[in-house]
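Q: Give me the 3D complex with pyridoxal-5'-phosphate.
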Amino acid sequence: MKVPLLDLDAHYKPIMGQIRQVLDEVFATHQYILGPQVKAFEAMIQDYLGVKHAIGCASGTDALVLALKALEIGKNDEVITTPFTFFATAGSIARVGAKPVFVDILPDTFNIDPAEIAKAITSKTKAIMPVHLFGQVSEMDRINEIAKRHNLAVIEDNAQGIGALYMEQQGGTIGDIGTLSFFPSKNLGCMGDGGMCLTNDADLAQKLRQLRVHGENPKYYHKWVGLNSRLDSIQAAVLAVKLPYLEEWSEKRRQNAEYYYQHLQDVPQIKLPVIRSQAKSIYNQFTIIAENRDELKNHLLDSGIGCAIYYPLPLHLQECFADLNGKAGDLPISEESAERVLSIPIYPELTDSQKDRVIEVIKDFYN
Ligand SMILES: *Cc1c(COP(=O)(O)O)cnc(C)c1O
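A: Here is the predicted complex, encoded as structure tokens.
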């Protein structure tokens, strides 16, 4: 039996008819850029997350760039973030000309360590960018408290956390600006690239709406140099079909996680994901810490089971950031995590027999 890391065929089968229908509606009107589907989907997200303003854009990466630009962060500014994340987090900071300042993570949740943030603040620090990694919101109460004390902005990279809660609050709506990605492998994925900014601040919202159309207001008059970064009407139409199913999909991911917790807890060579009692995860990934990780990975792949390392090289050690002078040993928890993590299939459509197969192959490896 094969168990892929993600099964988009199984995912789309039940809703493909609905998607074809809404796409026909877009094709009937030819309003491809910022059409009625985009406005409608933004309103649906505002409703779902309980946030005042949702601004669609071309990708989760662009959402971060737009957020930084809206907060006027650029040259000579520093943004404190985690090195244990997808590249886009720090890439967006560098793209606006600011400096990513990496601090270490917590060993159990893999999220940024608030105590380390406080130590890294300088006179140049403008913002903190926590990432809600693998679907679990960072410790936003502590992060907001530090930000408030030092007058810093908070941008939540919530690309992996749509619908995840922290102290009953929706991730991505707790800081100044939050972002979403609709990349196909995220919990709410579209059929291409897509992203969104979230904020409760009306001024920031207006600025974000202008920045995504080259900073123009009114048309052909430019107050800022913005981007060309819109969510396509086609993608918004697809996402509007999918959003009503999201809670059900997240619940299935949590049930799959529960199944793994039950059946893998007696394997001493692996550590299962730790979710804080204040947090409700959406399990974008189910990421274990494994002894002999590389051998386990090969054994799973040889047995037809999808798995992947998110992420193999922390960002402070990436070649493109060499001028930041990060070196091996600087951020030991991130570096050790990169050597020991492995993500296994958790997608909502997993069957019991598929989960049993994953469990069997892992147990078989260590016996
Ligand atoms: C996916 C992802 C992004 C970027 O999203 P794109 O839509 O692919 O540009 C940013 N940050 C994190 C943590 C992500 O996982």
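A quick observation: The pocket of pyridoxal-5'-phosphate is lined by residues 59-61, 85-86, 88-89, 131, 157, 159-160, 181, 183, 193, 195 (CB under 6 Å).
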